[in-house]
Amino acid sequence: MKKTVLSVFLFAAVLLSCSKDEQVDTSPEELLMNAEWKISSVGAYVAGLIQPLPEIAIPIEACRLDNIFIFKSGNQGIMKEGQGKCNENDPDETSFEWAFSEDKKKLQLSVPLLGMFDGDVTIHQLTASKLVLVVQYTLNDIPAGFAIELNKN
Question: Which of 43, 48, 118, 132 is most exposed by smallest CB count within 10 Å?
Fold first, then answer.
């Protein structure tokens, strides 16, 4: 009887020591490819800080904000036009290429974000549900740019 009780106790202890919340390392590629991304906001990036961007600072057409970006394996992707197309003759989907820099801190895109930014963008944040990209430049010797936040659609 003692052995049975001890066995049940040990088995329960082993089960309780296993946690469903164990952290699993997910690569940046997996994080990027495991979601469809939609632009949620655009902000100013000045001296390392992201600030809300007044609409008058850079007028962004609403038709650009409803596009969905899908990153696929083989460094291929698809940009799906949202319901509000900027030009009715635009295709519903546009293929693009993407690649990480060696250190995984930059993302190179062959499709313009917001219709104006393509090429290398800095990855400010990448999680399973949020992607923040920064387009950087220098203005009067001060690092500046735009931050584009995309959320899992």
Answer: 48
